[in-house]
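Weekly sync, protein design subgroup
Attendees: M.S., D.O., the rotation student, P.L. (late)

Item 1: inverse folding check
M.S. brought a backbone from last month's batch and wanted to see whether the design step gives back something sensible before we order anything. D.O. pointed out we never logged the input encoding, so this time it goes straight into the notes. Structure tokens as presented (624 positions):
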């Protein structure tokens, strides 16, 4: 029986990683009978070839191929493709490793959804993952998801897709041999899925400087090779916004990003050759839409390359690779990156190349929130990316059905803020009306502003919001107030007036008889925010439509604990339930009083014996 998945592992001088790498393959929960392993030793000289032979000797599902060093991972991967029998292919680099349940989960997704390609979540070890995939999805689009930004081969590929289109890796190259394979594969795939709820692939950052991407290359030749990749994109995707979205990724990742420190280390002749090769690609494939989508550092590179401003290009690269750039220039609601030659008449570089307004983000978090009387106090950090924190203004917008109120925060030099929302004054100095209020933080510098939802702080103490409380709004009187977290995104909201998050609805108590035969009712409840003198508490006896109010004495503790005691003598016969009525200004709440078991407290008053005799006699007389 043919295997379900073939794992192809190219190896070149990675002996120190092989045990962990192939151990992770052995540990796969998909099962050995469903798994084929093809390891291609590409001319290793560190003893790795012999180690692989020993490893494969007792494994009937593993095969080791030895070949002369080819100068890249492309050829050994192609050898593996040619020998593979699995329904699916997975390419695993020998210095990386798999999560134990990775292949089972990805194969299950591909089988269920009939996917041609399945992305598994990649975790960087000592380096950043290319894209942090966070959402598992049975189908994603290349044009509205981040998947096209990770074209590395560490995915599950349906082998029939690869064979149908004769797809192979570029050989004898150190860079982009995987992009040349992945681009036509993902563009021809009928369905692409993502498994993001499991760590599938662990990407190792070598500390010995031997990653292929760090090796020296002929950059002019490399750019010509990239031109072939761009041609593939153009052949498979019609001109327009979707093609530009894909092209942007290649100009970002394979063309303009190479103009960094290694470029500065070349002599003038090499620089001109590299710039000329890049200019060919820019002239043929870049559009205004692509240029606008690039960050200023790459937008400036593109302009300088096309305009032949190589001296200016070098200075801009030095500004990037040297000390931190100064804060952006602010003009009205626009922000411009502080690169050299901004509005220099000699260079005549357009302002649009420096414009980073669309890239300014509000970076913020809430660290804590707590009630202090009628005031909700929040603290956190907020800043605008790329912008100097000096002069930053921060505040919160309270919004509810057409009403918006602004509450400013106090901002420190380090970007921390403290905010006090006084329920009695938050509505432009007036009490905040009842209703559900959303909270959005706003940070502004000059006329440039950004806003975002306030999300609950991290930490277990904020897993659930504090219970509702009673707050005093001054002349508007007490009102129930609460913070609650939205279910979907844990955003912070205010509930004023018991509209959504209710104060306690039950109290604890009892009805007892004293030694002297008196009936006494007691009740107690904790209402956060209730304080002496804030309101009144009354004990009630309720039977059907009848309600009796008993003279009540109360005590109020510092923690909002209300204790009430009342006499209940002389009550008419019947069954009465005990209630506790709380009144504070416009706030009124009748609470059911329950015993320790949770059952309502009842007072049963029998009919007096004399009255029973009279009723019996009257009944007998009526009978005669």
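Designed sequence read out in the meeting:
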């Amino acid at each position: 029986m043919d295997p379900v998945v073939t794992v192809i592992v190219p190896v070149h001088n990675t002996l120190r990683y092989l045990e962990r790498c192939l151990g992770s393959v052995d540990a796969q929960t998909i099962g050995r009978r469903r798994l084929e392993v093809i390891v291609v030793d590409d001319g290793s000289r560190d003893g790795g070839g012999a180690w692989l032979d020993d490893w494969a000797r007792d494994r009937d599902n593993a095969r080791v191929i030895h070949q002369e060093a080819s100068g890249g991972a492309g050829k050994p991967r192609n050898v593996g493709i040619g020998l593979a029998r699995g329904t699916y292919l997975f390419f695993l680099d020998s210095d990386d490793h798999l999560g134990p349940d990775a292949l089972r989960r990805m194969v299950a997704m591909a089988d269920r959804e009939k996917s041609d390609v399945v992305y598994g979540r990649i975790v960087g070890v000592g380096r950043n993952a290319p894209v942090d995939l966070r959402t598992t999805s049975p189908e994603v689009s290349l044009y509205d998801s981040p998947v096209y930004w990770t074209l590395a081969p560490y995915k599950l590929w349906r082998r029939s897709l690869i064979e149908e289109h004769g797809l192979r890796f570029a050989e004898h190259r150190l860079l982009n041999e995987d992009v040349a394979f992945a681009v036509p594969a993902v563009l021809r795939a009928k369905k692409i899925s993502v498994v993001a709820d499991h760590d599938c692939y662990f990407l190792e950052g070598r500390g010995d400087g031997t990653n292929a991407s760090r090796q020296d290359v002929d950059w002019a030749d490399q750019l010509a090779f990239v031109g072939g990749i761009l041609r593939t994109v153009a052949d498979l995707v019609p001109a327009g916004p979707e093609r530009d979205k894909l092209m942007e990724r290649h100009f970002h990742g394979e063309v303009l990003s190479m103009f960094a420190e290694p470029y500065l280390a070349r002599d003038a002749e090499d620089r001109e050759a590299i710039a000329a090769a890049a200019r060919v690609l820019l002239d043929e494939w870049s559009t205004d839409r692509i240029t606008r989508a690039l960050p200023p550092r790459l937008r400036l590179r593109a302009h300088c390359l096309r305009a032949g401003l190589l001296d200016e290009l070098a200075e801009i690269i030095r500004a990037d690779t040297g000390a931190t750039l100064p804060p952006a220039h602010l003009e009205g609601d626009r922000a411009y990156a502080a690169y050299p030659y901004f509005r220099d008449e000699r260079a005549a570089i357009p302002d649009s190349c420096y414009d980073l307004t669309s890239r300014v983000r509000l970076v913020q978090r809430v660290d804590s929130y707590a009630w202090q009387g009628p005031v909700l106090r929040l603290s956190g950090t907020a800043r605008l990316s790329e912008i100097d924190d000096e002069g930053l203004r921060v505040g919160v917008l309270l919004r509810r059905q057409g009403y918006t109120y602004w509450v400013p925060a106090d901002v420190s030099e380090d970007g921390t803020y403290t905010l006090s929302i006084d329920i009695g004054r938050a509505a432009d100095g007036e009490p905040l009306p009842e209703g559900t209020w959303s909270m959005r933080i706003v940070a502004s510098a000059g006329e440039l502003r950004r806003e975002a939802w306030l999300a609950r702080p991290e930490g277990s103490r904020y897993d659930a919001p504090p219970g509702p409380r009673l707050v005093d709004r001054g002349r508007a009187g007490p009102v129930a107030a609460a913070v609650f977290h939205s279910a979907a995104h844990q955003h912070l909201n205010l509930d004023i007036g018991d509209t959504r998050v209710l104060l306690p609805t039950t109290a604890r108590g009892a009805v007892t008889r004293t030694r002297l035969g008196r009936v006494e009712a007691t009740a107690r409840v904790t209402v956060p925010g209730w304080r002496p003198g804030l309101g009144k508490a009354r004990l009630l006896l309720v039977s059907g439509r009848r309600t009796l109010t008993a003279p009540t004495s109360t005590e109020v503790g510092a923690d909002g604990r209300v204790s009430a005691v009342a006499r209940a003598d002389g009550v008419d016969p019947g069954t009465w339930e005990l209630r506790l009525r709380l009144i504070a200004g416009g706030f009124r709440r009748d609470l059911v009083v329950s015993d320790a078991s949770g059952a309502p407290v009842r007072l049963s008053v029998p009919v007096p014996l004399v009255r029973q005799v009279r009723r019996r006699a009257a009944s007998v007389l009526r009978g005669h």
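Discussion: The first strand starts at residue 5 and ends at 11. DSSP finds 14 helices and 30 strands in the chain.
Action: P.L. to compare against the previous round before Friday.
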